[in-house]
Amino acid sequence: MPSTRDIRRRIRSVKSTAQITKAMQMVASSKMRKAQEAAQTGRPYARLMAKVLGEVTRHAGEFTHPLMEKRPVAKRAVIIVSTDKGLCGALNGNLLREAARYDRQTTTFVVAGRKAAQFVARTRRQLAAEFSYRDTPSFAEARAVARFVRDLFLKEEVDAVEVVFTRFISTLNQKPESFTFLPIGEIKGLQTDSAGGGAEDDLAKGATEFLFEPSADSVLGALLPHYLSLVLFQVLLEAKASEHSARMVAMKNATDNANQLVRELTLEYNKLRQANITKELLEISSAAMALE
């Protein structure tokens, strides 16, 4: 049975842990609000550009592009977008479980985030490149990843590229997903539940006409690589919003659990202290009675 000194020492230790997790919760909460706003702000633009490109390519006649070439998939590249740090609940575990379903013999991995790089190294899979991105992702970071996998596809080193990432749904809900990045098929972009309007409604009704200058090939040839970079940029924003949300929730749960443990230890300490006082009183009473 632990002594009162042991329980006091453990209470101090748990209180120190609770202070740390509380501080991490506040930091994650501050970053979470900015990341969520960035992810939600970028969705309408990404969705509208996907709709515009989808309509443009359908009205471009016999337009073809190397990024749209479909061929039998003998070798596949998978982009995994993970976090750099842990302490974010089951976020990375769920994401890497999704990534683990790809055949290691025919798949090469391109990772953004240290947790994904550690997963590839630990499972002895083929790593083509590792990229990093900041708490506030930039378009240049997304463009670098998109350019690398685009070159792999154009050089026919891989026949398809897929992306595995965590979509931000709400503060309490983040979902690992995957989608085909290359070849570009019917352009849909990242699917969201946001309502359309305005220009999107006009596109849906076919009310928009397109005139290409100098030609459809030159215009779309420039837009498609930009579109790929935009898609990856939105993926990075979604991943960061998911990371900070999951970490805030995880640290809040850890703080609540630590405070509950402190209350339980304090109750146990008081019971043990009361038992010791009662025992001492009985010993004093017994000694007094023996002296009479």
General description of the model:
- Helix 2 links the parallel strand 1 and strand 2.
- This protein has a five-stranded mixed β-sheet, sandwiched between helices.
- Helix content is 59%, strand content 13%.
- About 3% of the residues have low confidence.
- The longest helix is centred in the C-terminal third of the chain and has 76 residues.
- The protein is of the alpha/beta class and 292 residues long.
- It folds into two domains: 55 residues, Orthogonal Bundle (Helix Hairpins), CATH 1.10.287; 220 residues, Pyruvate Kinase, Chain: A, domain 1.
- The chain is built from six helices and five strands, in the order H-E-H-E-H-E-H-E-E-H-H.
Largest sheet: 5 strands, mixed
Radius of gyration: 28 Å
Q: Strand sequence of the main sheet, in spatial order?
A: 3-2-1-4-5
Number of helices: 6
State the helicity in percent bands: 55-70%
CATH architecture term of the largest domain: 3-Layer(aba) Sandwich
Q: In CATH, what is the class of the largest domain?
A: Alpha Beta
Q: How many domain modules?
A: 2
CATH superfamily membership of the largest domain: ATP synthase, F1 complex, gamma subunit
Mean pLDDT metric: 85
The counted number of beta strands is 5
Task: Kindly identify the CATH topology of the largest domain.
Answer: Pyruvate Kinase, Chain: A, domain 1
Shape: elongated
Which series of helices and strands comes N to C?
HEHEHEHEEHH
Extract low-pLDDT stretches.
193-200
- Strand percentage, roughly? 5-15%
Estimated structural class: alpha/beta
Distance linking N and C termini: 35 Å
